[in-house]
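Support request from a user on the community tier.

User writes: "When I paste my structure tokens into the form, the page sometimes reloads and wipes my input. The last time it worked, I copied everything first. Here is what I submitted, just in case something in the input itself triggers the reload:"
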């Protein structure tokens, strides 16, 4: 379910994101982003990741991986971009048919 909310995207991302997935919702910063197929595809990839790992393990892994990357790089953006879930989503967001062919646990290749 897609929800347009500046408040929630800022709250969950410290104000940095255009969109964020908090299962089962995709929060968008503004209404015009509903038309951005690439952004929506990116967030749907995250929904697939959450579904296959289940909710709590996904967000726990995501947070732990972010902390480990941040300790390594000492940069918020670089740590975020190197999380395996984000790497999979960014590398495949332009392929709008990716989710049709995506195999379970595909994020594992991006660790």
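"...and here is what came back when it finally went through:"
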């Amino acid at each position: 379910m897609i929800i347009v909310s500046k408040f929630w995207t800022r709250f969950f991302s410290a104000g940095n994101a255009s969109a964020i997935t908090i299962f089962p919702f995709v929060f968008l910063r503004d209404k015009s982003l509903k038309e951005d197929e690439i952004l929506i595809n990116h967030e749907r990839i995250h929904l697939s990741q959450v579904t296959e790992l289940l909710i709590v393990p996904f967000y726990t892994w995501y947070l732990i991986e972010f902390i480990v990357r941040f300790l390594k790089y000492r940069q918020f953006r670089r740590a975020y971009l190197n999380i395996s879930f984000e790497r999979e989503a960014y590398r495949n967001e332009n392929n709008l048919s990716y989710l049709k062919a995506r195999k379970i646990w595909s994020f594992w290749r991006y660790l």
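Agent notes: The reload is a front-end session timeout and is unrelated to the input. The longest helix spans residues 55-73. The chain has one domain: 2-98. Escalated to web team.
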